[in-house]
Amino acid sequence: MNYISKGGKEYVCVMQVHCEYDKEELTKIIKSFEGEIYQRPPVRSSVKRRLRVRSIYDIEILDMDKKLVLFRVSCDSGTYMRKLCHDIGIIYGCGAHMRELRRTRSGIFTESTNLVKLHDLSEAIYLYKNCKDETELRRVLMPMEYATCEMPKLIIEDSAVNALAYGAQLAVPGIVAYQNFKRNDTVAVLTLKGELVATGNALIDSKELENAKKGIVVNLSRVFMQRDIYPKAWKKHES
């Protein structure tokens, strides 16, 4: 889901400086990159090399040893760490490059709470298929609703669920409750039981929804609910 990949990131990075450095001076330069920065993606990247603005929320220096600097960065999605190291080296005056990099968070997912080994996943699938034991599978797999925990939610009637599964758009009459949201926000559409039906972009503000009686509220971009899990509640027009 694009919503997850576009979430904020956190990295632990090892930077190698190309000369002996003064710790206090280099620390000031590194910390000066906190906030909004201009960054052009490196030559070897998967996007066009256009100058763009990215936000760095925090840089924490963890260790400085000889020519190596270990630091943690919390930043926008699309911030290039190797370019950050390169720019720090230019400002310091002798150059620098990224030596090692580890991503420790992507959006709401962190390596300390949400990661499992592929071996564990493979073993869980084997136990489920061959022993009908789903205990390990439930441990290593999270419900997809977890990925939407930071999205504004709209709760819909049971009678509207199957219509959305068949491609209908979400209109005002099908909504029973909602959280505050703004126009163009990515929102999650859930059943009364909390099951994820779909995600999409809001076409109106939640304030406009308060007094609305008709109209499309969300332009659905992805439907997750399978068809006919909920009963059909619409009638075909007779020709």
UniProtKB/TrEMBL annotation:
Alphabetical list of CDD domains matching this protein: PUA_Cbf5
Keywords: Isomerase
Pfam families per the UniProt record, alphabetical: PUA, TruB_C_2, TruB_N
Taxonomy, superkingdom: Archaea
UniProt record, GO biological process: box H/ACA sno(s)RNA 3'-end processing; mRNA pseudouridine synthesis; rRNA pseudouridine synthesis; snRNA pseudouridine synthesis
Gene Ontology molecular function terms on file: pseudouridine synthase activity; RNA binding
Gene3D superfamilies, alphabetized: Pseudouridine synthase (3.30.2350.10), PUA domain (2.30.130.10)
Protein name, entry field: H/ACA RNA-protein complex component, Cbf5p
Coiled coil ranges: none
InterPro entries tied to this protein: PsdUridine_synth_cat_dom_sf (IPR020103), PsdUridine_synth_N (IPR002501), PUA (IPR002478), PUA-like_sf (IPR015947), PUA_sf (IPR036974), tRNA_PsdUridine_synth_B_fam (IPR004802), TruB_C (IPR032819), Uncharacterised_CHP00451 (IPR004521)
Annotated organism of origin: Saccharolobus islandicus (strain HVE10/4) (Sulfolobus islandicus)
Domain PUA: 152-225
SMART domains per the UniProt record, alphabetical: PUA (SM00359)
Keyword field contains Isomerase: yes
